């Protein structure tokens, strides 16, 4: 598929003016698509109705790569099977995690030892991020709270007005930018919690339940919105620097017209890579907002990128490898379809994804071949993207299990492997 014509517009001051701090717009009226968001297979099927896209069953695999557990702990109660954006954060040799009931915990990343634990009484739903001795978390009721990373002491909290289903992001210059579920963006003073600015974008009638996490880029912060729009703001005052349509809504029904950008954008150099639901995988110039190329691909779970390429979990839970320069497909792994995969994480020559049954799958980055697997927990699935830090994988499951793993050559097999998997990838000329 050839690159399509670019779209978008730039220029400082273009787009919507920010709302000054203290002036709150009325809440937007919107219906949120109540799905678990892992492709059609995530639709809840009731009674005697049969799921038309059941998770692919796993078959045996001869392991090429081993994933050994260094330690495993259960410091929180997890997400309670809700679609939240609670992810582990690594800082200075410690891991920080939170759960849906308000517990926040800090652990030693080397041995899993609990350093401190706090019960905040908030329904946490997004975060944390860490900077300058504090961590920030968002809640389902729209609270943003800052805690000391030393002992979990609360420093401040502020009510934003809508659920936080993304990671509140520090800007590096004393601010936090937060994207809430109603497509409002907030600039918060990191030291005090004071709201500095707010900008509200209109949400479509029907959207996915999720939000893209802001990402810092040269001279600004970029956020993906419902309806397929990517925006860059000045973190100082919220002024729009450019706005670009990655995917225009298309289709006859409201569901078909959903084109949300819920996958977090990835920055490589000065190029942003972003995916939209019912839409496209695209490369966007982070300075100008110009769309460099588009490839048709529906994604909401997330993507990863490095010098070797782009790696995407699509809406059918197929994992793709694609070229950075053109977006042309290199390979596609179909053996995990409808298994509600996480966004991919990259560790060395491997791509790691978690699934609905608590398995961590390892794919060869060069060809998409399934080369390893381990099970983190039998009691819950994995929603959060695996975290790579210090040469290890940290995996946070829905039941609150947090595991540290190292990867390396698989041990010699002892008889037939009992680790299930399925499928070799397609490697012909494929285009997402």
Folded structure, characterized:
The protein is an all-beta fold and 432 residues long. The protein has a domain at 84-200: Lipocalin (Beta Barrel), CATH 2.40.128.630. It is built from no helices and 39 strands. The strands form ten sheets. A five-stranded antiparallel beta sheet has the order 1-23-22-21-20, with no helix packed on it. Strands 2-18-17-16-15 form a five-stranded antiparallel beta sheet, with no helix packed on it. A five-stranded mixed beta sheet has the order 6-11-12-13-14, with no helix packed on it. β26 (280-285) and β27 form a beta hairpin. It starts with 8 loop residues before the first strand and ends in an 11-residue tail after the last strand. It is globular, with a radius of gyration of 21 Å.
């Amino acid at each position: 598929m050839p690159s399509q014509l670019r779209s978008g517009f730039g220029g400082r001051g273009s787009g919507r003016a920010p709302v000054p701090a203290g002036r709150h717009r009325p809440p937007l009226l919107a219906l949120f698509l109540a799905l678990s968001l892992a492709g059609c297979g995530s639709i809840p099927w009731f009674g005697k109705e049969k799921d038309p896209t059941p998770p692919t069953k796993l078959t045996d695999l001869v392991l090429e790569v081993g994933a050994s557990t260094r330690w495993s702990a259960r410091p929180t109660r997890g997400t309670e099977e809700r679609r939240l954006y609670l992810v582990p954060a690594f800082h200075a040799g410690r891991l920080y995690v939170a759960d849906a009931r308000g517990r926040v915990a800090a652990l030693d990343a080397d041995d899993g030892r609990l350093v401190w634990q706090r019960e905040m009484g908030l329904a946490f739903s997004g975060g944390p991020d860490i900077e300058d001795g504090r961590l920030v978390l968002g809640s389902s009721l729209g609270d943003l709270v800052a805690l000391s990373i030393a002992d979990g002491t609360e420093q401040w909290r502020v009510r934003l007005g809508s659920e936080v289903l993304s990671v509140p992001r520090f800007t590096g210059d004393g601010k936090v930018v937060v994207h809430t579920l109603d497509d409002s963006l907030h600039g918060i003073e990191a030291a005090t919690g004071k709201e500095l600015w707010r900008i509200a974008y209109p949400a479509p009638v029907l959207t996915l339940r999720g939000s893209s996490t802001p990402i810092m880029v040269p001279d600004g912060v970029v956020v993906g919105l419902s309806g397929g729009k990517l925006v860059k703001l000045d973190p100082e005052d919220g002024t729009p620097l450019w706005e670009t349509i990655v995917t225009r809504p298309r289709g006859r029904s409201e569901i078909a017209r959903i084109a949300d950008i819920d996958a977090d954008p990835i920055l490589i150099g000065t190029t942003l890579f972003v995916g939209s639901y019912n839409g496209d995988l695209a490369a966007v110039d982070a300075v100008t907002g110009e769309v460099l190329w588009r490839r048709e691909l529906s994604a909401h779970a997330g993507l990863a990128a490095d010098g070797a390429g782009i790696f995407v979990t699509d809406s059918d839970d197929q994992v793709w490898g694609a070229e950075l320069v053109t977006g042309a497909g290199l390979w596609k792994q179909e053996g995990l379809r409808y298994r509600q995969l996480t966004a991919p994480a990259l560790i060395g020559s491997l791509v790691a994804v978690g699934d609905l049954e608590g398995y961590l799958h390892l794919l060869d980055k060069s060809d998409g071949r399934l080369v390893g697997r381990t099970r983190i927990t039998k009691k819950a699935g994995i929603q959060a993207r695996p975290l790579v830090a210090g040469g290890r994988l940290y995996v946070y499951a829905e039941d609150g299990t947090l595991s540290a793993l190292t990867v390396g050559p698989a041990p010699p097999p002892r008889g037939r492997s009992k680790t299930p998997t399925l499928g070799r990838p397609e490697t012909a000329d494929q285009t997402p």
